[in-house]
Amino acid sequence: MVVPSLKLQDLIEEIRGAKTQAQEREVIQKECAHIRASFRDGDPLHRHRQLAKLLYVHMLGYPAHFGQMECLKLIASPRFTDKRVGYLGAMLLLDERQDAHLLITNSIKNDLSQGIQAVQGLALCTLSTVGSAEMCWDLATEVEKLLLQPGSYVRKKAVLTAVHMIRKVPELSNIFLPPCATGLPIPCLTSGILLGTITLITELCERSPAALKHFRKVVPQLVQILRTLVMTGYSTEHSISGVSDPFLQVQILRLLRILGRNHEESSETMNDLLAQVATNTDTSRNAGNAVLFETVLTIMDTRSAAGLRVSSPCLSPCGPTHQSSPTLARYVALTSLLRMVQSDHSAVQRHRPTVVECLREPDASLSRRALELSLALVNSSNVRAMTQELQSFLESCPPDLRADCASGILLAAERFAPTKRWHIDTILRVLTTAGTHVRDDAVANLTQLIGGAQELHAYSVRRLYSALAEDISQQPLVQVAAWCIGEYGDLLLEGSCEETEPLQVKEEEVLALLEKVLQSHMSLPATRGYALTALMKLSTRLRGDNNDRCPFTMDTPIFHLLRAAILEKMPLVERGGTQDEEAKESKEAQLSEAALVSTEPPASKLLDLLDLLDSSSGAAQPPPPLEPSPGGTLGHLLDLPCASPAPASVPNLRVFEREGLQLNLSFVRPPETPALLLITVTAVNTSGADVTHFVCQAAVPKSCQLQLQAPSGDTVPAQGGLPVTQLLRIFNPNKAPLRLKLRLTYHHLGQSVQEIFEVNNLPAETWQ
């Protein structure tokens, strides 16, 4: 016996009544079988009912692709009930990736030409939802005609469809500019049409210089409408939480921001209005906060009066950033100040005490925004006070903020440190408090700083020894302490430092502490390496009989002969400089090539190492030029001469620049392996705010092989600080024309940014 097909209401009840997922699938499978059979039979009277059930099944997440062609049949039907379900099905089941959506173009064109408003509305809604670029080109003329319809129902939908068309095909801006210009004056429009028209004008102004120039003439009208909304209320039925039509207010403010940008006359026209909006908007509700936020953005992006920027009520300490204000209002104010700090740093500085208070807010998003703003406010005049506040916050901040706070303090100390001793003390406190959350280069930076401050060697080694004796769990702190003890352990034992409290340290205590680090289960392999090196170096500095406690030495005559030279204090390495970067790139290329061709057994490498050490310790003649080999690798490591020709010079290339963030590419091709290309990606930030969570990803054509090395960090410091670098190794054996596709993701000025772009202008020297 054939079970009859269910009605839509019965199907919904039966699906909801299913007690298990299996029962639900059984019901849906049976009904889908009935729907398929009905579609095959071609029943025109019940086709729209079957499709309505299929759309419900689709909404539950089950496949419904077999109903796409039925949508086209219903749209072509003359009956309104069929068209209504057909257009709904087209919006749910069709998209630009399927060619079937192009088949409804003629049906939509015919329906737009009819005088039935309900049918025209269905066609416009479908076009604005699934309209592809081809459909927009074909139907732009019909939509243009409907923009001047007297009826508000069709006109409002036509405006929204025009917005979709411009976003999809910006070249259509010239078609919709005349009807927008002739469709004014704005005060004669209803609220819905006014909102849609302003949205359409905003899209036109963003994409067409001619539209921007034309609509600057209507700034007085926009100002008058917004003033009416703020002071008297435009329409009571559109009020939300006591704020009159906040959606319309926000859209007008966005349009004013575009029209007033880099235009003195328009900015002056809206100055008084912006002050009124900022003063009279109720910030106790979310709707008011949205309007206030757009107002602040408009004030900062236009050429507003300086007094308006500084004295805006939404940015004053007694305003939304005050502790008694709602959380969302303070978040809006902090975000606004963060955007403003780059353009007017001194004006934001006056709110610094209130911003610091917001650091201890229980709301995570508020404290994070306050942290970003606090770090942006640090300068040479307030670095001591701000660093003290940030260090106090670091001790009690949530775990997810520790990394950002620690990195920010280290960057601020590196840029604005008043003295080297203060700089060392600041880094030590950060390492003691949150050593596991600091950046990867913190250890190298601190060792570089201590090594360059000869007058602070004794002070630093005593401070680090005391910190290490108290806690060996913070691995970066342990690594720096072990390095410093290995280099300056003799100063620790002398006890001649006048800048610290008297500290009597015995050789046995120092060795016991380093052995404790070696045996600790918390020590990382790198940490144990630092401790081993320190013990090795102490074997040349200890005066007593404790050398037997340093069993990590090579018991060979050669080693004893060269031990003093090998384990002497590390020389100071200069940082920065173009020559250093070029030398680094050249060494990376040479080391990469040597690693590719390395085939000699380890014993030969050890003999080469001993020979090189022996030749470098005496007055022997310099070694002969070396061929690419494992010995050549060691030669490069020791900066010995090499006969390999210098890599060919390839010009650098800037591929990205936005809001102070620049991305430059430098190239090196090892002459021994022409198919290998080394690209160093350098990210530099010249803005006033740090770029955080920076990630660079790359892709190359299938004929090439790409290997991405780990970047030097994920934070690009502001104001031209230490850049972030990343090495790309590309193997192009066929010497095919090279193209790069890069994706950048980062956080800057309170926003999450993602950029995807192609680099098609790489120099020919990179692949020929």
From TrEMBL:
Question: By its UniProt entry, which SMART domains does this protein fall under?
Answer: Alpha_adaptinC2
Classification via PROSITE patterns: GAE (PS50180)
Keyword Protein transport attached: yes
The alphabetical list of record keywords is: Cytoplasmic vesicle, Golgi apparatus, Membrane, Protein transport, Transport
Q: Which SUPFAM superfamilies does the entry mention?
A: ARM repeat, Clathrin adaptor appendage domain
Region of interest called Disordered, as start-end residue ranges on this chain: 576-598, 617-640
Main location group: membrane
Under the heading Gene3D superfamilies, the entry gives: 2.60.40.1230, Leucine-rich Repeat Variant
| Pfam families attached to this UniProt entry | Adaptin_N, Alpha_adaptinC2
Q: What is this protein called?
A: AP-1 complex subunit gamma
The organism encoding this protein is Ursus maritimus (Polar bear)
